[in-house]
Protein 1
Amino acid sequence: MMRNKKHVMLLAISLCGCVAVNAQMLRPASWSYLVSDSEVKIGCEIELIFKVKMEDTWHLYANNQDYDIGPLPTEIHFEPHESYKIIGDLKPVGKLIAEYDTLWEETVRYFKHEAEFRQKVKILTENPVIKGNYTYQVCTTVDGRCVPGDEDFVFTGIVVKHKSRRKEKNRDAKSGADEGSARMNLPKGRLGNLSGE
């Protein structure tokens, strides 16, 4: 019981410090995002890639944590839309560090310097609308300061490819030519019967 109270108090102190630091517009982490393939066909799967760069001495807590109370893990939320479907879970990529945190009395996982997260999706329609937001927390080893983050994202520039009409016309023309050629190669007897002779 005492341990739970301790955790709650530590969390409250940490969050208060986070809010104070964030109010000063400290931004030790920079996010960017891109797609594994910007030209796709309906039914194909692509990966949505989130990359994070951190300043020296700062680290970012990963999404795959086992604790109930502790540092805020990275979470990426996608707004549901009929144009795409989430496939599997969000995967952390890169050098992930796991160590016991004496403050939280839990094992935590985090990235230093840079981090990457990947989410696989299936494209279901033209003009896919993929957006949402990510939340995270970064802390520094210098003085223990922590900064939370909460930002929106929108993936643009995904082109859904289709077969060109020219190819379809060429295919139809070739099919008609093959048909005519087959008729021209019929035996004379059959041609006579077809003409009514």
Protein 2
Amino acid sequence: MGDFGKLQTINITHLLNQLARIKAKVEHDKSTNAEDMELLQRTLHQYDHIKARKTDHTTRSTGLSRKKLSKSTITSGPFLRKALPSHLSSTEEERRVKRPQYEAGETPEVYSSFVDAVARFLIGTVGGCALIVPMMIMVLHPSLVKSVVVVSVAVVS
């Protein structure tokens, strides 16, 4: 992290401490006044502004906006990036910045919003089925043995 990033981190920490002091004062007094609300509003505005600039600075230094999938969808992401054509799995920015790798057909480093949406849809559908299917099996022709087997299989898988 460069000097600029360190200064921003110090400034953000200072603002967070100031917000904590404001919160503690409001909780202690069990009320607030116009002056406290003005200070809170200014502090939150400064915090939002600095956080936005920090994100902006990080994006500019890498040349790409790094929209990666959350950990819950990473499991299907690499498969989708490899299985789908590169024009669907790479973002416009990555195609522009890494033109030779894109034309060579390499898997992209950054997920496109299409791959993100497909991965989330697939995981949501599979998760829903994992809940509904065992329930449907147990409801149709209920028996104790079948319920125990279905619950055991569902828990193990």
